[in-house]
């Protein structure tokens, strides 16, 4: 896993040992991906950083929550552990020590038909691992969409960005793209998608990279290294990201993306009732069973 994630663009973080692998990006998060040795592969859950210690106290008072306790993960801080209705673990974290940012190149400036922004400068991008900036979003498959959304909304200040409904129908809602509620501040179109399914787990986790050249050069590099391409490259419809999906050595889907939408409090959700293939505007389209 360390070999793959390094090729994918992450860096081994302080605190890793022969049982647990912590990987980081170029940003200030101590780690953004955790792998633990076990008898079989499975998705354990996700961590959400909250704004203050008081948020942890409030979450600890909810039914099924753990008390506030010191984190045992590298970087320290405090945490509250919770479990979604389908058994997916959600850990609220506050006070984890920040890491020093890692160097990264500046995004390449693009010339379009109207605006010539790159003057007397050329693009020179080798085929090589890209640099991962951060975890941008993840997608959860759940048995009961409404119960899972009610659980999340009771605990966090999330807002819907867009909805999935069955193909060709107007309802019911079977998937919700979720974003943070930070008022006038710009936020990603989504950091989570909750999607009803006949199986429970993580559909994929997505990591933001510098620009499209990073996506494409890394795509070629991972192919050269013999890793398993899943779907890509293409541009999503909902969120607009340029995407590239891969499979890690244990079969989990992992995504590079760039150029995603950002929104503020004025954004209003729409309803999407197409198929998985319709979620791609251009490029490699996923098969119909992509979200099953």
Automatic annotation (TrEMBL):
InterPro entries: Glyas_Bleomycin-R_OHBP_Dase, Glyas_Fos-R_dOase_dom, VOC_core. Signal peptide: none annotated. Residues 63-82 are annotated as: Disordered. Residues 134-259 form the VOC domain. Transmembrane segments: none annotated. This is 2,4,5-trihydroxytoluene oxygenase.
């Amino acid at each position: 896993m360390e070999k793959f994630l390094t090729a994918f663009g992450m860096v081994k973080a302080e605190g890793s040992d022969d049982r647990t692998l912590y990987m980081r990006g170029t940003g200030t998060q101590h780690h953004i991906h955790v792998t633990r040795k076990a008898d079989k592969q499975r998705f354990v859950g996700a961590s959400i950083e909250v704004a203050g210690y008081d948020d942890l106290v409030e979450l600890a008072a909810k039914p099924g929550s753990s008390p506030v306790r010191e984190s045992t993960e590298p970087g320290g801080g405090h945490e509250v552990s919770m479990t979604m209705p389908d058994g997916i673990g959600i850990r609220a974290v506050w006070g984890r020590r920040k890491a020093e940012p890692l160097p990264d190149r500046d995004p390449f400036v693009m010339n379009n038909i109207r605006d010539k922004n790159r003057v007397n400068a050329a693009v020179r991008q080798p085929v090589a691992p890209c640099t991962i900036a951060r975890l941008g979003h993840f997608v959860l498959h759940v048995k009961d969409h409404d119960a899972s959304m009610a659980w999340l909304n009771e605990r966090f200040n999330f807002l819907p960005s867009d909805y999935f409904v069955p193909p060709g129908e107007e309802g019911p809602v079977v998937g919700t793209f979720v974003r943070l509620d930070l008022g006038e501040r710009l936020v990603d179109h989504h950091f989570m998608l909750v999607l009803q399914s006949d199986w429970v787990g993580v559909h994929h986790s997505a990591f933001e990279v510098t620009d499209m050249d990073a996506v494409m050069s890394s795509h070629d590099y991972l192919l050269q290294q013999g890793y398993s391409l899943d779907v890509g490259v293409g541009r999503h419809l909902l969120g607009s990201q340029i995407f590239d999906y891969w499979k890690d050595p244990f079969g989990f889907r992992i995504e590079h993306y760039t150029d995603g939408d950002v929104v503020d409090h004025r954004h209003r959700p729409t309803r999407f009732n197409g198929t998985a293939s319709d979620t791609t505007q251009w490029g490699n389209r996923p098969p119909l069973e992509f979200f099953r």
